[in-house]
Amino acid sequence: MSDIVVVEQGNEDEGGYVALGCQIAHELGKAYPLHPWQVSFQGGAMVVRHEHINAFVGGALKREGFGYLLPKDKLGSHKEVVHSAVLAGGAMLELFGYPREKWDGERLPEVPKDWKPRQEANFA
After folding, report:
1. Strand pairing report for 37-42 and 45-50
2. Residue 34 region by backbone torsions, left for phi larger than 0, else alpha for psi between -120 and 50, else beta
3. Is 55 domain-assigned?
4. Is residue 5 assigned to a domain?
5. In sequence order, which residues have a C-beta less than 8 Å from that of residue 57 and are 6 or more positions away?
6. What does DSSP say about strands 68-70 and 45-50: parallel, antiparallel, or unpaired?
7. How confident is residue 33, by pLDDT bands cut at 50, 70 and 90?
8. Does the residue 124 lie in any domain?
9. Which end of the chain offers a freer environment for a tag, N or C, measured as fewer CB atoms within 10 Å?
10. Is 119 within the bounds of a domain?
11. Number of neighbours of residue 35 by Cβ within 10 angstroms
12. How many domains does the chain have?
């Protein structure tokens, strides 16, 4: 199980996001143990990142802030958002050649074969 750290509480109208973000982080930790997940909300949209994949993409593809974004108007119920986040986490792991099981912290991500530096579209 990974630690959950609340970095920023947000505004009063964003209070529900803290609980939702913690629930998402908890479920990602259960589904994909020891993977370094980051869950945040920006402007009401949910962003899920894998710390190592995000750093790798920044270095290898010169593309900062890589992660799964679920816009505010597509969030749905808490259960739907948690489910979407767990599916997105698994898809990110597969895309970069990581196993879905417990992570040992040793393996480096792989650049998908059809990706190019500074690519701006078609990431799936």
Report:
1. antiparallel
2. left
3. yes
4. no
5. 63, 66, 109
6. antiparallel
7. very high
8. no
9. C
10. no
11. 23
12. 1
> CA-CA distance, 90 to 121, in Å (whole number)?
20
| CB atoms inside a 10 Å sphere around CB 112 | 14
CA separation for the pair 36, 32 (Å, rounded): 9
Distance from chain centroid for Cα 62: 18
pLDDT tens for residues 75-116?
778 898 899 899 999 999 988 888 889 988 888 788 777 766
CA 18, 74, 83, 53 dihedral sign is negative
Alpha helices per DSSP H over 32-123: 51-60, 78-95
Check residues 107 and 22 and name the one with the higher pLDDT. Answer: 22
Residue 29 backbone phi and psi in degrees, to 5 = -65, -35
Domain containing 56: what range? 12-95
The mean per-residue pLDDT over the stretch 30-51 comes to 89
Question: pTM for this structure?
Answer: 0.77
